Recover the amino acids of this structure.
């Protein structure tokens, strides 16, 4: 069986379909549409670090070359990866050969990494799993194909938990990825390697995906910016038999403008959503923001997280936004139960695909204990799937009505239930029932926006007394991506974060 035959459901923390299609083509966005330098990023550019937008401009003007930037990024990777273990595969010699010879897009010559759940032609894709070790991609996944058209130079693949099934990046195939702010802590998942590499300033941005929090969770734990696009705004993985597609792709970045410019040039523009406006500016109109630090399912939230979010709510109030209390009308416990059953169905499908690919029966020698536990959970409850899918399909209307009935423009909540926890607490080998409770406590806030298809972002506005990042999650409805970007530009100007560096940093 080849990987061309593999397809699967979208699932919780950023897992994506395994089927691959021919590369999607898109002409590069004109440079006139690129969001310009802001006051907040100018400070970063005066230091040793440049964001991707500034780096591309410097390459285009001849101030530097792609090869110089690629070699510098490789040197940074080599200096810190022994501490953070965020790289699944290196393709440095290929990157050096391609530097200066990439497509003439808006990010021509800028080095980056692609998440290991997604294909980059000629590079290994292991899906964070021992079962697929040694697999070489025959073509790009659709969104990476658009990144190729943007002119990026890919240095390799960033680490991910097995098939993106966890909120921590500790796969058995590559080992634990460690947080640049505290190497005894997790980076989150499933785009954990991507967020760690960006936080450590190895590259200015990195490819990421989000099926239940996998952009936003590691963005929060690593102190970087991460927007989960609305469903359908950017290319999906490819063909899918999923009854409800919950996984999307984009990036983790330091600067907001990098996220904007990457989004704009890869936007689907099929008429479902308006194209992202050129030259976005900080938000001018004032918003009514619904605020809570209570987890939907009633799981505990760390005191330092509550305190940080109270401070961010106060900041938004000082900026003139109206902050009101928010309480969802739906049952958080019911949502978690049905969502994780859907998630388990995806894990079971992946386990069967791993079995078919290896020729071995499903068991602990080809899939991790967490994946196996989810598979067993699904097998014991598969008669509930029809009703579960129906309930989840109806959730977008419930979520939207919550905001409309309360007159709320956006929601403000924590991204995670706590700052990054210790390595090992969410390892795939932890006893299933224990790990299940830990996952739903840590990843307590993010999944509703995947099921509803809503735009959502984690913004690095706070750090704990122990120096760990705490993300603030702002969420709207489907199509609110531009609104979130404009708010992010306002917040970036009000409380800049680019100059905050972790102890493990490549500069």
């Amino acid at each position: 069986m080849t990987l061309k035959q593999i397809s699967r459901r979208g699932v919780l923390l950023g897992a994506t379909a395994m089927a691959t299609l021919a590369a999607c083509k898109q002409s590069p966005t004109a440079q006139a549409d690129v969001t310009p330098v802001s006051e907040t990023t100018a400070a970063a550019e005066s230091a040793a670090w440049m964001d991707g937008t500034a780096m591309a401009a410097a390459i285009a003007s001849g101030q530097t070359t792609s090869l110089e930037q690629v070699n510098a990024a490789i040197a940074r990777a080599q200096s810190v990866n022994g501490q953070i273990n965020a790289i699944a595969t290196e393709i440095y010699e290929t990157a050096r050969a391609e530097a200066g010879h990439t497509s003439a897009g808006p990010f021509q010559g800028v080095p980056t990494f692609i998440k290991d759940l997604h294909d980059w032609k000629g590079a290994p894709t292991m899906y964070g799993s021992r079962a697929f070790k040694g697999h070489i991609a025959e073509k790009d996944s659709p969104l990476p194909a658009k990144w190729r058209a943007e002119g990026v130079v890919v240095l390799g693949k960033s680490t991910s938990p097995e098939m993106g099934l966890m909120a921590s990046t500790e796969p058995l195939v590559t080992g634990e990825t460690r947080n640049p702010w505290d190497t005894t802590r997790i980076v989150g998942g499933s785009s954990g390697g991507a967020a760690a590499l960006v936080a450590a300033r190895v590259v200015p941005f990195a490819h990421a995906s989000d099926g239940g929090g996998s952009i936003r969770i590691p963005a929060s734990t690593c102190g970087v910016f991460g927007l989960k696009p609305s469903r359908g705004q950017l290319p999906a993985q490819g063909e899918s038999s999923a009854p409800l597609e919950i996984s999307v792709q984009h990036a983790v970045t330091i600067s907001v403008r990098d996220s904007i410019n990457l989004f704009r040039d890869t936007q689907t523009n099929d008429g479902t959503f308006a194209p992202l406006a050129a030259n976005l500016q900080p938000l001018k109109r004032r918003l009514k923001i619904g605020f809570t630090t209570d987890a939907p399912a009633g799981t505990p939230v760390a005191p330092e997280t509550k305190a940080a979010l109270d401070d961010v709510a106060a900041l938004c109030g000082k900026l003139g936004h109206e902050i009101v209390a928010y309480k969802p009308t739906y049952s958080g416990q019911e949502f978690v139960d049905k969502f994780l059953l859907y998630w388990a169905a995806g894990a079971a499908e992946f386990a069967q695909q791993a079995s078919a690919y290896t020729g071995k029966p499903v068991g602990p020698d080809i899939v991790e204990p967490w994946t196996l536990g989810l598979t067993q959970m699904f097998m014991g409850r598969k008669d509930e799937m029809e009703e579960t899918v129906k309930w989840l399909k109806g959730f977008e209307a419930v979520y939207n009505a919550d905001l409309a009935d309360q007159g709320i423009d956006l929601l403000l909540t924590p991204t995670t239930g706590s700052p990054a926890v210790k390595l090992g607490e969410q390892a795939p080998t932890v006893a299933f029932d224990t790990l299940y409770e830990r996952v739903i406590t840590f990843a307590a806030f993010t999944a509703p926006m995947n099921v509803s298809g809503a735009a959502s972002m984690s913004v690095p506005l706070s750090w704990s007394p122990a120096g760990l990042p705490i993300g603030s999650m702002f969420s709207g409805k489907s199509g609110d991506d531009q609104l979130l970007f404009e708010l992010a530009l306002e917040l970036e100007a009000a409380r800049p974060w680019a100059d905050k560096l972790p102890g493990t940093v490549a500069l």
